[in-house]
Sequence to fold (327 residues):
Amino acid sequence: MKIIHLHRRPQEGYHSIENIYEAVRKELSSEVAIETVVMPFYCSSHLGKILNMIYVFFLRADVFHVTGDIHYVAMFLPKRKTIISCHSVEGGRPEYEGRAKKMFKWLYFVMPNKHCKFWTAVSDHTKKELLDYLGCSENKVKVVHNPVLNFFSEKKTKKKTEIPVLLQVGTHKRKNIGKLIDAISGLECELWIVGEPPKDIVAKLEMKKINHKVIPTATAEEMNVCYNKADVVVMVSLEESFGMPIVEAQSVGVPVVVSDVSAMPEIGGQGVCYVNPGEAESIKEGIVKVLENEGFRKELVEKGFGNVKRFDLEFISKQYLEIYRAV
Fold:
């Protein structure tokens, strides 16, 4: 059985999808050979998309797995051999409105849905969104969670720092950093932000006099260092299709404060402190409780270790193998 993983053309700072499927390929290497094909063109232009679709048309395999972010190429692949992984339902393009939004839905979901045998969704929440969005058969969408990679196996050993470090991963608008800044204003802490924050967030950090550090980009190995130096990982997002920082932090023993909406309760399980992302006071109370209540911290860490077992790489990889064999 010849399997091809189809990847987007890589861009600086966007490696999470590629890292996941590289790990899956290595895990399945003794079971099946999987070839990697990277798109020759970026999909930021219509011409790039068209050229990518023409490129995949000439590929030959028993299974084509579109790993994410390039759903449209499925239109030029054989339906009975094609799987598409959905990491977010339109969430990556919230700025689209009107005609552009309709075009995005048609190009990334409606037409690809007509040309694939299965979708995989990274969470039950994402599956529900996909079913609502497309109205397709429930059996066509398989939930396969993202695995925790082996980069995040080194357990945190240092004790809480004198000035606590709060780690925020990502700077998209849905990450709700503005509300997080309101919540920690007046707290003695240092906020580490992975990613380039927009100008309004930088201005608010300065105005509120928040002690902070910006880490523009980070590899998986560098993220492991960040997690090990953090006292708390915060994810008070308004929406997440999965939320990798939750399970990455749990895997190294860092307590997590997370929103109680969308996919985050599904992913965090009982091993996180839930807060209302719309209320700064709720966020503040959660952070303070985790920082000051040692017993609660230890409880979150232990439950986090238990929760993260659900995202074991070997288990997730075997789920993909079962889907490949069903094609």
